[in-house]
Design brief:
CATH architecture: 3-Layer(aba) Sandwich
Order of helices and strands: EEHEEHHHHHHEEEHEEHHEHHEHEEEHHH
Oligomer: single chain
Radius of gyration: 22 Å
GO biological process, one term: lipid metabolic process
Keywords: Hydrolase
GO molecular function, one term: triacylglycerol lipase activity
Structural class: alpha/beta
Protein name: Fungal lipase-type domain-containing protein
Distance between the termini: 23 Å
Strand order of the largest sheet: 5-6-7-10-11-12-13-14
Pfam families: Lipase_3
Strand content: 15-25%
Number of domains: 1
Length: 482
């Protein structure tokens, strides 16, 4: 991509904090303007593309990929409300039955006028993710000294992060017997809304304190959240490379300043990166021997790897020296090759673990697409597990871009096996592996959209519990690998 001359500006905010940028805005697109996109190299003339004045994109295939990204985002925004209605229906009935003590008591309470409506803020209310996998306890068979322990703890945190504060607090304190350090509902300067959530907890790993930071992932019934996964918008930051714009914004990118080292605190509008960084500093001051981990699933996984990237950008070496590792599950691609090289240097310099887990045909780690025409790429090892929970440490997950004619038949055959497996895991592995009706419903959807149910937390919980322990030891990033 190149720029020529200078014309009128479409800037919506000050972008002097970055070297380059490409921002797609599906809400501003018109049909004829969209149709022109693949056939005109002057992409800066399109109303729905915000980029430096005079930007030219010579590659037809790159313009076509942008075209597909816009179409996908428009579709996901279009179905956002229907998806939300479906999600509300999925959540309401199971929670209604639970609040009334089961199906028959629900009928009795309805007839007698004593119907109890579910409270979305109660510690027993479950979101669609919670209904997908109701497990709250850690695996009692995986002890501190087990190589799987930290990963197994991390995915349980990533799963719990989808629930409300009361549920998370009760899970940490009563089910894990650890200390709950706080829930964070954080502001997005661009969306002008509280779109980013997370929590922190503290426990023991051997004789040391291990603090956990977890970011919440994408709601399965939020079309706007899903559109972020196919959005090709990016900012190129000084010394870091290109990083996904939506993920940067969710973490706390300032609309007029980028990533200032410090900002004026606003208790009414906390930004995820800044409020979590401050909480970590305060906690670590009281216990200099403590370590912390960062984890998340889906969108939360993307924020998890961006968090140490910005810490390094701010030269927070003291904090980075305390970072035990980053554990991501179903992580989408976050940045370009330069970003990957930057992060590999950060991880190696500070001796941090980076476990990027990918389960089988999960489609989210395979977006945004990785090709010569797209900037987003994974870096470091992929801890890949098949549908038998057999793991390998690979340079990249198989079928890395999901859409492959050769992979279609194996993917759908695997979806059939996963549905069948959901009925036999109870007998093979014990009652804690009995899948819910909601989970099996997602397995049925997988017969139509292979790889969608594979993104859910249940399989990631299972692979950390059933996977071979020795594979969890491998955690170093080789700076010489792509």
């Amino acid at each position: 991509m190149a720029t020529e001359g200078s014309s009128g500006s479409k800037k919506t905010c000050d972008k002097s904090f970055c070297e380059d940028y490409l921002l797609l805005s599906p809400k501003d697109v018109g049909l004829f303007d969209l149709i022109k996109l693949p056939f005109s190299k002057h992409i800066g003339e399109r109303k729905f593309i915000d980029c430096p004045d005079g930007t030219i994109e010579e590659s037809f295939s790159q313009r076509f990929v942008i075209f597909l990204s816009i179409v996908a985002q428009k579709f996901l925004h279009f179905i956002d409300k229907p998806l939300s209605w479906v999600g509300s229906a999925v959540e309401f009935m199971p929670n209604l039955m639970a609040a009334n003590g089961g199906f028959f008591k629900l009928l009795l309470n309805t007839v007698s006028g004593k119907l109890v409506l579910p409270d979305k803020e109660s510690p027993v209310y479950l979101t669609a993710i919670g209904l997908w996998d109701i497990r709250r306890d850690l695996d009692s068979k995986i002890k501190n000294e087990d190589p799987r322990y930290t990963s197994a703890l991390a995915i349980m945190a990533a799963k719990a992060a989808y629930e409300n504060e009361a549920y998370i607090k009760e899970t940490v304190e009563k089910h894990w017997e650890m200390e709950f350090l706080g829930f964070f509902n954080c502001w997005d300067d661009y969306e002008e809304d509280y779109t980013t959530q997370g929590f922190m907890w503290s426990g023991k790993k051997g004789d040391s304190e291990l603090i956990g930071v977890c970011f919440r992932g994408t709601s399965p019934f939020n079309g706007k959240d899903w559109s972020s996964d196919v959005d090709l918008s990016w900012y190129e930051l000084h010394g870091i490379g290109k990083a996904h714009a939506g993920f940067l914004k969710a973490l706390g990118l300032q609309s007029s300043q980028g990533w200032p080292n410090d900002i004026q605190a606003d208790k009414q509008k906390p930004y995820a990166y800044y409020v979590i960084r401050q909480k970590l500093k305060e906690r670590l001051e009281n216990n200099p021997n403590a370590k912390f981990l960062v984890t998340g699933h889906s969108l939360g996984a993307a924020l998890s790897i961006l968090f140490p990237a910005v810490l390094a950008y701010h030269k927070e070496t003291d904090l980075l020296s305390k970072l035990e590792g980053v554990y991501t599950f179903g992580q989408p691609r976050v940045g370009d090759h330069k970003f990957g090289e930057y992060m590999k240097e950060v991880l190696v310099t500070h001796g941090m673990r980076y476990h990027r887990f990918v389960y089988c045909n999960d489609l989210v780690p395979r977006v945004p697409f990785d090709s010569s025409d797209v900037y987003f790429k994974h870096f470091g090892d992929c801890h890949y597990y098949n549908s038998f929970y057999k793991g390998q440490v690979l340079a990249e997950e198989p079928n890395k871009n999901y859409f492959s004619i050769l992979a279609i038949i194996p993917m759908f055959a695997n979806a059939i096996w996963e549905l069948f497996r959901s009925f036999i895991m109870y007998y093979q592995n014990g009652p804690e592996y009995c899948e819910t009706y909601t989970c099996r419903g997602w397995r049925v959807i997988g017969l139509l959209i292979a790889g969608l149910p594979a993104h859910g937390p249940p399989d990631y919980v299972n692979l950390t519990r059933l996977g071979s322990p020795e594979l969890f030891i491998t955690s170093t990033v080789d700076p010489s690998t792509d």
